[in-house]
């Protein structure tokens, strides 16, 4: 019997830190699109965050490992950490296509990220190379993409309705600075790692 081709979801992000919004998005995408696995790819040097003081990639990678440990479909890749220079999604998609030449590849984002896709490197090529799953995120609406763009890329962008979680890494970092609770916004293992390593203080 012929083996079914693998279907892979790539979940890119800074994950500073990873939280339940990321995990819920990946889980809903995996169910809806029958993904065999979701590979979380922490961005080593995100081009749109160069002026920001982001946490060491090793810490972000470890937190992603802790957060995804219990899900058999979730994996974490060091691909962008091992590549020199800025971390561009087009390079990551190309590298995954080389690694899995027969697989169908989806790139999973929240709707805020997809709305910015035309500021990314080689956006048109990117939309040809991978199909995008754009999950709803409170505060961002895919209709802002504009009807013409949406019509042009209708086959490459798949909206995905998920239960909205108004959680963001920025808000979690701010809460830690101000001593407000972060419990239930991210896995307990990640919360413990943040405490142990005194991150975001
Ligand atoms: P920051 O506030 O530092 O930008 P973030 O919470 O937006 O952090 P990122 O690492 O920037 O997290 O996001 C990685 C991916 O996850 C992006 O595609 C983003 O749209 C998506 N995402 C993040 N949080 C949510 C959420 N609460 N719901 C849906 N998608 C999300
Ligand atoms: Mg973000």
Automatic annotation (TrEMBL):
E.C. code: 2.7.7.18
One function term, GO molecular function aspect: nicotinate-nucleotide adenylyltransferase activity
Keywords: ATP-binding, NAD, Nucleotide-binding, Nucleotidyltransferase, Pyridine nucleotide biosynthesis, Transferase
Cytidyltransferase-like domain mapped to chain residues: 10-175
Source domain of life: Bacteria
Keyword Nucleotidyltransferase: yes
Family under the similarity heading: Belongs to the NadD family.
Protein name listed in UniProt: Probable nicotinate-nucleotide adenylyltransferase
Organism of derivation: Orenia marismortui
Gene: nadD
């Amino acid at each position: 019997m012929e083996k079914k081709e693998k279907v892979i979801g790539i979940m890119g992000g800074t994950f500073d830190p990873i939280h339940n919004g990321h995990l819920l998005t990946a889980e809903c995408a995996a169910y809806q699109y029958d993904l065999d696995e979701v590979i979380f790819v922490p961005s080593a040097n995100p081009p749109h965050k160069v002026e920001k003081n982001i946490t060491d990639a090793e810490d972000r990678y470890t937190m992603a490992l802790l957060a995804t440990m219990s899900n058999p479909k979730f994996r974490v890749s060091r691909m962008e950490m091992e590549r020199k220079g800025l971390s561009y999604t087009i390079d990551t998609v190309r590298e995954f296509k080389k690694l899995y030449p027969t697989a169908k590849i989806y790139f999973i984002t929240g709707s805020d990220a997809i709305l910015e896709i035309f500021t990314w490197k080689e956006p048109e090529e990117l939309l040809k190379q991978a199909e995008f799953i754009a999950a709803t995120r409170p505060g961002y609406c895919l209709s802002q993409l504009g009807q013409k763009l949406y019509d042009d890329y209708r086959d490459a962008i798949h909206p995905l309705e998920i239960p909205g979680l108004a959680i963001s890494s920025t808000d979690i970092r701010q809460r830690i600075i101000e001593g407000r609770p972060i419990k239930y916004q991210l896995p307990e293992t990640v919360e413990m790692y943040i405490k142990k390593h005194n991150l975001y203080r």
